[in-house]
Design a protein that fits this description.
heterodimer, A: alpha/beta, eight-stranded mixed sheet, three-stranded mixed sheet, globular, B: mainly alpha, 1% strand
Chain lengths: 843, 326
């Protein structure tokens, strides 16, 4: 049978199934899948072809057919990635890797692409400073094969350049080289440095933050990922903030916006003797502003509000993310975070009262932190009791904290962050108070009305810095050192090239040169070392790796200061007094009395005294480290994101780029070695990626490969606490909890505060039930033990019928317990029609 | 007996006799969501880039889903609720009816947002024979239920109830809706209509419970009234499901006159047969079609836990009713 398609050239031609199979040959060989399976992929795609289908769509259909089997074997991922790449080659180069002159065409295409980009005004003419012949020779197309399917898909969708018709103009290696060149054109030896940056990134050793990837090399390079600003309590500044939010969002940055200063509802307005409507309506305006900016699907307008919880209108603030109620008093798009003081946390622990004030009456509380805040706050509480405050509210601290946790469970907001830990530990405390964090809770920088804080990010891919020796993994410290130092140089270069869209951001950027180097692949690394996320070994390893990275990053910045000069605000900073991050842990401990022995580990391994002396001489950057969530670049790198545990052994990730399936390849390899993969495959899917109930999988494997909801919650705190010791900014710390007991959840967050976490990020709740699964056998009647028409239809008899108990029903309803029904589903005769064909007793 | 005319003595919730119905009620309450939680702005951008075949598929789905939700509601009100004695079943049905209303309004919200020809969509289900045939099929069973001479205590009355239940729950909600969901979710596979997809996630989650309730109810009735399940009656029920598949097959040919990337009428019909086999097995039958699921990608859509980048996509996993469960 033949089907008509419209080829790339535009002519109609006929296609047979063997023709379609032929399209898979090259990619198929790379995948390691057998011929049978490759043919099956072709046959599935064949089914979906329609009359006069464009060939481009035919190729996409093949990619999709391969991708839908990723759940069955990681080799399908390789096949899908290879096919997807082939599509990119067609789109950009007009040939694929089967072409005899492929390498030549691949290399020579770069110059054309750059030329066109410069001519059309998308790319900077500064790219002409490079000796392109030298750089072109470096392009290594074989590195395109490092990507997973989700990785290459994400890279091409979000980061690679497109022309005005949305046609790709870059293949992956052009992309890496553009970023490398776009961050080195100010160097004295730009070719050499660009080559170094290219080499690191194209091998996935580290990757820049999203905005840098999108805009590096551009004529007006908006390279910053994160902005932090604050809103002053007057209409002019509120208006200006809306305008700034629009400009920053358009320039692809996420925003943290501190709003504690806005006066309370009912607060008098002196100019016209009326009363304020409070912060909520103004926050709603900001929410609409970011929603208006969607940035062509590359990144969305996104913002998080920060408010201290002593604000008079805090209850309304908590309601901003409720899913019911007056839309004008909600912020559907913007996120919310709370900024908690030690004073509050102590009152929670001691079950004391908490007072809410109108910031117009207590303006100094906003700038104060630590001990000074507590003294002043207690003074206001006293005045309130004396009847000397215009307004105040009094609630139990514990009740308010509980409300935050309930809201966190119901609406994923507010994120919980700690004002005093952030400020007391700041090394750049000479430039003012830090009023909040950013969109992803890893940046902690001071702001004022003339300074919008800017941070520039990159993340080290830990698993690419491992050496394998006889199946045993070790960290390649030398390579890691090289990566860290180059990444810091790259980030520092970025500051001079970057053109933030508003003057307040340029101010901050040029005087502080704040950067944030983070990591990704921590959980992946633990698995390669055969250690569990919630184990002492994991805590030690995170501690040691982060210490090393921090040490190298600080050292590299001190070296850059000697080469290029210190950042403008260096003098007066704690760096200038010889402080390193570890020293600020001690300041934190001495400044607060949490009623028991410190919980924060302060051990170290490296020669910090030597570095303290060097740091005193000058630092190039006011901050060095911040661990971002890496939700997208982690996907590009093909590793676990940030310091997150594996969400589940198989799960889907829903991002702006669509939904991707992620299967833990480390686990698959382990199970394949034991000959268990084929047996476990469907069970793992049926149990929603939780292997703990599968009795045939050895305990030591189950111990290491826990899903995020089975990891001991204290491990999220401990891993972050060990890392936070070395990180001068903060960490996007996601939490994953199976429990919904409010008290247990509260204790996790109290522990986070005690252990010195500066911020926490999303709270992921284990879902209690999902939709009916589609691709694996589900039989509700078997699950509840009734036979229905089975008696008459199969002549079995009603004797087997029993009344369903609620426990059995739960089993059918809740993924948590899906494993309980597993004996029915998988040990009995298969009910899946396909499998039934293979079962002797059913024939 | 769950089946029968509810009397005054059936007005006490306690003691709960059908715990499964009460559990489903609580689960449904925890699932509460509202259409306005979904922002469709990006989907509107996608819409502008979609080709005519794709738009036709979406508008066709709307033509069926929008009235479909209301038809289920009418069936529950006239053909199910009045004939059940258990208050816990009434609780669940009340929540389900609100959900059907909510789905209707959700599709309405999509209709208002997308530049769809609303007149055409509202008219389509009355004019296009393949959609009309589906509606007539359901109406036929329902009309018999609302006949005032129906005696629910009689053997024939009970059988009539089961027929109607199978038609709206197993065929309409359990098979037709599922085929529509698969088509709707296929757009997300192509990175299109992602937020619409989130809405469908919620609808599917609700429908999974509706189906659980329906199947539990059928099985309970059969267990309590073994006399109705003769071989002949079983055959009749099986045929209702198979007739439903045939109607859906014709409908899908109109839905996809040509096909779009990844989907065409044969493909969807194969999925319909696969789902129908599953429903037959759940009722205790052997599978009839023995068809393989062509849509393995549904594993990504419905079979796995979902990790959401909160500021990029709607997180559909949070529950409004946390307080109740502490």
């Amino acid at each position: 049978m033949l089907k008509k398609i419209v080829s790339y050239g535009g002519e109609t031609r006929e296609l047979s199934l063997p023709d379609l199979e032929n399209k898979l040959v090259a990619a198929g060989q790379k995948s390691g899948l057998g011929a049978e399976k490759i043919k099956a992929v072709a046959a599935e795609a064949w089914q979906t072809l329609y009359e006069n289908m464009p060939e481009r769509e035919v190729d996409k259909a093949l990619t999709q057919s391969a991708a839908q089997h990723i759940k069955d074997d990681p080799n399908y991922d390789k096949l899908a990635a290879a096919l997807f790449l082939k599509g990119i080659y067609w789109e950009v180069l007009g040939v694929d890797s089967n072409d005899d002159n492929f390498s030549e065409i691949y290399r020579s295409g770069l110059k054309k692409e750059l030329r066109a980009g410069i001519d059309k005004g998308w790319l900077s003419s500064k790219l002409q400073r490079f000796d392109l012949d030298k750089l072109v020779a470096l392009l290594d197309s074989s590195r395109d094969e490092l990507f997973t399917y989700a990785g290459i898909e994400t890279l091409s969708r979000r980061y690679m350049m497109r022309d005005e018709k949305q046609k790709l103009t870059e293949v992956p290696q052009y992309f890496w080289l553009r970023v490398a060149m776009g961050l080195s054109w100010n160097e004295e030896e730009p070719d050499k440095v660009a080559a170094d940056f290219y080499d690191r990134m194209s091998k996935l050793y580290y990757i820049s933050g999203g905005s840098t990837n999108v805009n590096a090399g551009a004529r007006s390079p908006r390279l910053s990922n994160c902005f932090i600003m604050e809103m002053e309590d007057n209409v002019d500044h509120i208006g200006k903030t809306v305008s700034d939010v629009l400009k920053l969002s358009k320039a692809t940055g996420g925003i943290g916006l501190a709003v504690t200063k806005l006066r309370a509802s009912g607060s008098p307005i002196s100019t016209n003797n009326t009363f304020s409507s409070g912060p909520v309506p103004f926050l709603h305006i900001i929410d609409s502003a970011i929603r208006a900016i969607s940035r062509a699907g590359k990144k969305m307008g996104a913002l998080c509000f920060y408010m201290e919880n002593w604000h008079f209108d805090f209850q309304e603030y908590l309601d901003l993310k409720q899913n019911a109620g007056d839309d004008y008093r909600r912020t559907r798009t913007a996120n919310t975070a709370v900024y908690l003081s030690d004073e509050f946390m102590m009152r929670v622990k001691n079950d004391d009262y908490w007072y809410l004030f109108d910031p117009q009456e207590t303006p100094d509380l906003i700038d104060l932190y630590g001990e000074d805040f507590s003294v002043r706050y207690q003074k206001y509480c006293h005045l309130a009791e004396q009847g000397e405050m215009r307004v105040f509210k009094k609630v139990k601290a514990l009740d308010q904290f509980r409300q935050m946790i309930v809201s966190l469970q119901a609406s994923a907001h507010p994120w919980i962050t700690f004002k005093d830990t952030i400020n007391v530990r700041a090394l750049n405390n000479n430039t003012g108070t830090i009023y909040g964090s950013n969109l992803c809770t890893e940046i902690t920088l001071p702001t004022n009305k003339d300074n919008v804080a800017v941070c520039n990010l990159a993340s080290i891919n830990l698993v690419r810095h491992l050496k394998e020796d006889n199946g045993k993994f070790n960290i390649d410290w030398q390579e890691l050192e090289k990566s860290v130092r180059l990444a810091v140089r790259q980030l520092d270069n970025l500051v001079d090239i970057n053109e933030p869209p508003i003057i307040e951001a340029r101010n901050f950027d040029s005087h502080n040169r704040a950067v944030g180097l983070g990591v990704m692949g921590l959980a992946d690394m633990f698995e390669k070392f055969d250690i569990a996320y919630d184990s002492a070994e994991a805590y030690e390893l995170s501690d040691a790796v982060m210490e090393f990275i921090s040490y190298q990053a600080i050292d590299a910045s001190a070296d850059l200061a000697q080469e290029r000069g210190a950042y403008d605000n260096f003098y007066g900073s704690r760096w200038s007094k010889g402080f390193v991050p570890l020293d600020t842990v001690k300041v934190l401990e001495n400044g607060r009395d949490i009623g028991e022995k410190s919980e924060i580990n302060v051990s170290f391994r490296l020669d910090w005294d030597k570095l303290r002396l060097k740091v005193k001489q000058g630092m190039r950057n006011s901050t060095l480290m911040a661990i971002a969530p890496t939700a997208n670049i982690g996907l590009v790198a093909g590793t676990s994101t940030g310091i997150d545990p594996r969400f589940a052994q198989i799960f889907s990730r829903n991002t702006l780029g669509g939904k991707h399936l992620e299967l833990n390849v480390n686990l698959v390899n382990k199970l394949k070695k034991l000959g268990l993969w084929e047996k476990a495959r469907e069970d793992i899917l049926a149990s929603y990626g939780d292997i703990s109930g599968l009795d045939y999988i050895p305990e030591n494997i189950k111990h290491i490969y826990k899903d995020s909801f089975s990891v001991d919650p204290q491990a999220f705190v401990e891993v972050a606490s060990r890392a936070q010791k070395w990180v001068d900014q903060a960490i996007s710390r996601n939490m994953y909890l199976a429990t919904r007991e409010i008290d247990e959840v509260m204790n996790v967050y109290i522990k986070a505060w005690e252990k010195g976490l500066k911020t926490t990020y999303y709270l992921h709740m284990k879902p209690r039930h999902s939709a009916e699964q589609s691709t694996i056998a589900v039989n509700k009647s078997t699950a509840i033990g009734k036979t229905g028409f089975g008696a008459v239809a199969k002549k079995a008899g009603f004797g087997a019928t029993v009344v369903a108990t609620s426990a059995e029903l739960e089993t059918a309803a809740v993924p948590v317990e899906a494993k309980v029904e597993e004996p029915v589903q998988f040990k009995a005769c298969p009910t899946d029609p396909q499998e039934r064909a293979q079962c002797d007793s059913c024939q | 007996m769950i089946l029968g005319k509810p009397l005054n003595e059936d007005m006490n919730l306690r003691p709960i006799k059908y715990q499964w119905a009460y559990d489903l009620y609580n689960q449904a309450v925890a699932n509460t969501w509202f259409p306005h939680e979904i922002a469709l702005g990006e989907d509107l951008d996608d819409w502008r880039k979609m080709d005519e075949d794709e738009k036709q598929a979406v508008s066709f789905l709307m033509s069926f889903f929008n009235p479909g939700e209301l038809i289920v509601n009418r069936t529950l009100a006239l053909g199910v609720y009045p004939y059940l004695k258990a208050p816990e079943a009434h609780l669940y049905l009340a929540k389900q009816m609100w959900e059907e209303a909510n789905h209707c309004v959700a599709f309405e919200y999509v209709l208002e947002t997308f530049p769809l020809d609303k007149e055409k969509i509202f008219a389509q289900h009355l004019e296009i024979p393949s959609i009309k045939a589906k509606e007539d099929f359901i109406a036929r069973f329902l009309n018999r239920m609302s006949d005032t001479t129906l005696d629910i205590e009689s053997l024939e009355g009970k059988r009539e109830f089961v027929r109607n239940l199978v038609a709206y729950n197993i065929v309409m909600e359990g098979t037709w809706f599922y085929s529509g969901f698969m088509v709707a979710l296929s757009f997300r596979q192509k990175q299109k209509l992602k937020n619409f997809g989130s809405m469908i996630d919620w609808v599917v989650r609700d429908e999974s419970l509706h189906l659980k309730f329906g199947i539990n109810l059928i099985l309970t009735i059969l267990e309590e009234n073994p006399e109705i399940a003769t071989a002949e009656f079983a055959e009749e029920i099986k045929n209702i499901v198979i007739d439903g598949v045939n109607l859906e097959t014709a409908y899908n040919r109109d839905l996809f006159p040509r096909g779009i990337l990844g989907i065409n009428a044969d493909y969807v019909n194969q999925y319909v047969e696969y789902v129908a086999d599953r429903r037959l097995e759940e009722l205790g039958f052997e599978p009839h079609f023995n068809t393989v699921n062509p849509a393995q990608w549904m594993a990504t859509e419905t079979d796995t836990l979902e990790l959401v980048n909160f500021f990029e996509a709607q997180n559909t996993k949070y529950e409004v009713d946390n307080r109740a469960h502490k």
